[in-house]
Amino acid sequence: MPLRHRRHPFTAWALAATILAVAGCSSSAPVGGSSAGGSVASAHSAVLSGTINASGSTFQLTFQEVAISGFRSVQPGITVNYDGIGSGEGRADLAASTVNFAGSDSPIPPAEEASFKGKEVLYFPVVTGPVTLSYHLSDVPELRLSAPVIAGIFDGRIKTWNDPAIEADNPDVTLPATPITLVVRSDSSGTTANFTEFLVEAAGAAWPLGTSSTIDWPAGSLRAKGNGGVAQIVKSTPGAIGYVDYATAKGAGLTFASVKNKDGNYVAPSPESAALAASQVILKPNETFSAIWAGGRGSYPITYQSWDLVYAKQPNANDANMLRAYIGYLLGAGQELLPQLGYAPLPSGIDQQAQAQLSKIAG
């Protein structure tokens, strides 16, 4: 089934030429060597041909676009198509078997489990990174926000930028009386799920809207599909604020706030502060984890993660071999691309465990 190819408005192609030179010269073997056994190493290095179709997370989209081009130099016979349509739609495509894998920023919610009909789904973490609070105030180049204040903004209680609660976080900043315009996701989104998980964890009772891939946002919120759609509205709307992944926010030239973390420090989003947060996570046996609200002096508190979801049982050996090769590339040489794109690589222990389960993909 052909993919819909909804393109990201702000991609990293300005960086692609330099980054792809790194990708092309990098070893195709997983970082630290293959830990998944000889059959996986053989599949990864064998000359393969065919098409891999995938859809899902817009958080992954910039990485997928650049990694696909780098992978082409390793396996020119494999065509990889990735459609950034949001985590929820990607999971739905995988459940319907219209794609070979789905990018998702959150595990499969209980309400969706029945749609997978009992099939074993493998989680391959491929990337971590910050969710920014991107805003449009031309005379405010620096802003600090704490979780209760972010909660008040996004549930509609805090309506202007000079609200006393925002001023308390920013005592040395002159804030305008500009009305706040909320910009949120219209689609089922892992970014939404992780952003609202942060609010549940960090703001507690100050956040009444819960956590989910979709939220009943306050009336008057502007809604957009994908991280790129939110970024585009924030960029063009004075007084706007939205939650946008770091790679997209940087690509769009947005300004973003420093956020108060679990240790009480205001930390700016960056690949480095996200990596510090990710280094604190506890990995579950199925390779799922959460870096949201992680401890650590320099940890960015809205750090999230994204997986590629794959059925363990593939319809044939060629599909299994192609998936092992491509996901092995993302976990290996692909990790070297991430900091230049605004993402954080996986902690080495998580990356190695993800590589080790490549052998579970079988045809």
Kindly list the characteristics that best describe this protein.
single chain, 363 residues, alpha/beta, 9-stranded mixed β-sheet, 3-stranded mixed β-sheet, 13 helices, 12 strands, 34% helix, elongated, disordered N terminus
Q: What does this molecule look like?
A:
The protein is α/β, with parallel strands linked by helices and 363 residues long. It has helices at 13-25, 38-45, 61-72, 87-95, 147-154, 164-169, 190-203, 226-236, 246-252, 271-278, 317-331, 338-341, 348-356, and strands at residues 50-56, 78-84, 101-104, 121-135, 144-145, 181-185, 222-224, 240-245, 255-256, 258-260, 266-267, 303-311. The strands form two sheets. Strands 1, 2, 3, 4, 6, 7, 8, 9 and 12 form a nine-stranded mixed beta sheet that branches. A three-stranded mixed beta sheet has the order 5-10-11. The two termini are 20 Å apart. Residues 1-43 have low confidence and may be disordered.
